[in-house]
Amino acid sequence: MNKIPFAIILLCVLLLNIAPYVHDAEYFEQEPKKIIVNPLAKYDFRNLRDTVYTLKNNFIEVNLLTQYATLYSRDGSVMKIPVSSGTEKVEEGIDTREGLFVLQWKEKKLYSEQFDSTLMLHWMGFNGGIGFHALEGKNYYRYLGKKNVSHGCVRMSREDAEMLYSLLEKGTPILVHKGNAAIKIAFTQEGENYNHLAYKELRTSLPERLSVLYNGEFFMKINDKILIDEKNVPASGLPIGDASLIPPKQSVISPYLWLSPETPEFVKINSLLDGNIPGLLTLNLTLDSKSSRQKI
């Protein structure tokens, strides 16, 4: 009997083993199937900020770098106001401190005991002895919007100070920053729920929320909206964080969740390739499930 060369036998065995894969290859040559991709996958979250809310009709941001204050109103209007903040470079002066504050008290005329009874017009205090105000005369106008030359307060023109005095009420939020705050202010909306924490709770909660934001877990762990006013923000203010610590990616809840967590991986893959998802997946944007997270 003729002997079959070993090489031929080996070739036959190999052909038998790869036959199923050749068949599968024909399947993968078909038209590509659409894979579900989270629409936020390429989003850069470094502009994300934790938000605190106000019931008031206005709030103010003071940018110490640009020497401008911005008045935001509930009707959507925005007004830029040139200011001059404090600096330690002048005698007995201090730098205006960053922080989240609210308007604490107002006086049309207030005399400074520290600085030779200087008359401060339309005083609006928000950080102890620090506040918005105008001065008599106009010599200081040349510094407004250009240079910080005050002893600690935020100076503005008499016209702007009078206008703000008429608009702002006690508890109006004031965010003082150098362009890198990790917190922003927004107006409340009808139909939304807000959480008004006592000061001690808020003082603990804000740093915790900022830590979650820095860790990329903001959407997974922060779901309440914080309300601020004169009752829970003290004259000493609250921290505003550092936006440079916010990562470009945040964990989010996948828009599609598997109905059965026991579904085998090969079934998931095949159903995605076949586009056969209605029976296996459900759309759920609110379920907080670790198994449904995607780091994007």
What does this structure look like?
The strands form five sheets. This protein has a five-stranded mixed β-sheet with strand order 4-3-2-10-5, with no helix packed on it. Strands 6-7-8-9 form a four-stranded mixed β-sheet. A three-stranded parallel β-sheet has the order 11-1-12. Strand 3 (68-73) and strand 4 (78-82) form a beta hairpin. The chain is elongated. By secondary structure, the protein is α/β, with parallel strands linked by helices. It folds into two domains: 46-245, L,D-transpeptidase catalytic domain-like; 254-296, no CATH class. It has helices at 6-28, 158-167, 199-214, 218-221, 265-274; strands spanning 50-54, 58-63, 68-73, 78-82, 99-102, 105-112, 118-127, 130-135, 154-155, 173-177, 183-187, 226-227, 251-253, 256-258, 281-283, 293-295. The protein contains five helices and 16 strands.
Topology, please?
Blueprint: H1 6-28, E1 50-54, E2 58-63, E3 68-73, E4 78-82, E5 99-102, E6 105-112, E7 118-127, E8 130-135, E9 154-155, H2 158-167, E10 173-177, E11 183-187, H3 199-214, H4 218-221, E12 226-227, E13 251-253, E14 256-258, H5 265-274, E15 281-283, E16 293-295
Parallel strand pairs: 1-11, 1-12, 2-10, 8-9
Antiparallel strand pairs: 2-3, 3-4, 5-10, 6-7, 7-8, 13-16, 14-15
